[in-house]
Amino acid sequence: MSTSPKPVKKVPIHLQSAANRVYIKNGEIVNHDKSFKADVYIEDGIIKFVGPPSEITIPGGVRTIDASGLLIIPGGIDPHTHMQLPFGGAVAVDDFYSGTKAAVAGGTTMIIDFVLPNKHESMIEAYDKWRSWADPKVCCDYGLHVGITWWSKSVSEELGILCKELGVNSFKTFMAYKGLYQLNDSDLLDVFERIRQLNGVAMVHAENGDIIAKNTQRLLAEGINGPEGHELSRPEEVEAEAVHRACVLAHQSDCPLYVVHVMSKSAGIELARARQRYRGRYIMGETLAAALGTDATCCFHMGFEHEAAHVLSPPLRPDPTTREFLMKLLAK
Whose CB among 71, 111, 240, 258 lies 3.0–4.6 Å from 266's, allowing a Cys bridge? Predict the structure, then answer.
């Protein structure tokens, strides 16, 4: 059983003050469906009123913000973060304090981070560990996905505890990182079927780990061991093949699937085809701000530090038209 308390909605640090009544006037609200002129009144971190100023009487002692000529946008939710993640002998530079403080400063008011158990580690113990890192530090609301980094009867049982008792309903699987996190197709089918039974959502890092391992060996043998070798080890078709395979496996298991960090045109095409093939059922995907804001051409011949700072998996692609293509897929 988990030793962590049940998840609670935490009042962010930026709202924990005496003056936590805010009135925003004269702005234009932008929601998911429309934009319109209205005022907003917030008390104790909760939106109490949205509408014309004639319909509300504002109490005294309120902080007033004049948003004339400005947009009022709901706080963002970042569904894919890795705060203080230990990985590959290093630890992510942002912990749950500095990372969520930066999030709030940029208008993101909730994150969903990833618990990544080591192979053969209890998922519940890993969940408790992440909670112990996050609870004392977070400046905004947060949730947790949990990674399935190995498969066994005990993992299947712990999935039930995570779903039914601890409020976790999204689980990340890996088709990459051979020997570390990668699951084979048979295990993925079992995982997807179990997640479906729990009414959860499967997430997948879609790259063909076997091909990447072979390419890595070849590139190292050829003396290519810098950041430039990263994209060479996992070209677009290695990502696209895995996206296609993940969608088929999920469909065969009748399990909702969320493909994380789609980074190439060909992978995006496979995702779009699967959504069309299955009439939009089951299949979802995300891309990253990095994929929409830059590409691999900015990394060529720029020196080790610059190039290494742009390494991610799947990698940025050298095709400069990738950014616009992925943005169009988002718009659709």
Answer: 240
Q: Tell me what pLDDT residue 4 has.
A: 67
pLDDT at 12: 52
In this structure, the answer to whether residues 40 and 157 fall within a common structural domain is no
152 and 177 assigned to the same domain: yes
Distance CA 258, CA 274 (A): 12
Whether a cis peptide bond, with omega within 30° of 0, leads into 314 is yes
The residue range of the domain holding 198 is: 76-331
Mean pLDDT across the stretch 237-245?
98
Per-residue pLDDT tens digits for 191-217: 999 999 999 999 999 999 999 999 999
Q: Quote the tokens at residue 47.
A: 């939106």
Q: Tell me what the mean pLDDT of segment 32-55 comes to.
A: 92
One domain, residues 36 and 175: no
- Which residues are bridge partners to 64 per DSSP? 23
Q: Residue 57 maps to which CATH number?
A: 2.30.40.10
Mean of the per-residue pLDDT values for the chain?
Answer: 92
- Contact status, residue 261 vs residue 287, Cβ threshold 8 Å: yes
- Residue 221 and residue 318 share a domain: yes
Rounded average pLDDT over 297-301:
77
User: Are residue 101 and residue 231 in the same domain, yes or no?
Assistant: yes
Nearest to 58 by CA among 72, 41, 38, 37: 41
pLDDT for the residue numbered 15: 46
Exposure letters 11-39 (e unless 16+ CB within 10 A, then b): ebeebeeeebbbbbbebebeeeeeeeebb
Residue 199 lies in a domain: yes
End-to-end C-alpha distance for the chain, whole angstroms: 43
Which is nearest to 171 in space by CA: 161, 159, 154, 181? 159
37 Cβ contact partners less than 8 Å away, ≥ 6 residues apart: 26, 27, 28, 29
Bridge partners of 259, per DSSP, are: 204, 285
* pLDDT of residue 17 exceeding 50: no
| Closest-CA residue to 185 (of 115, 272, 285, 253) | 253
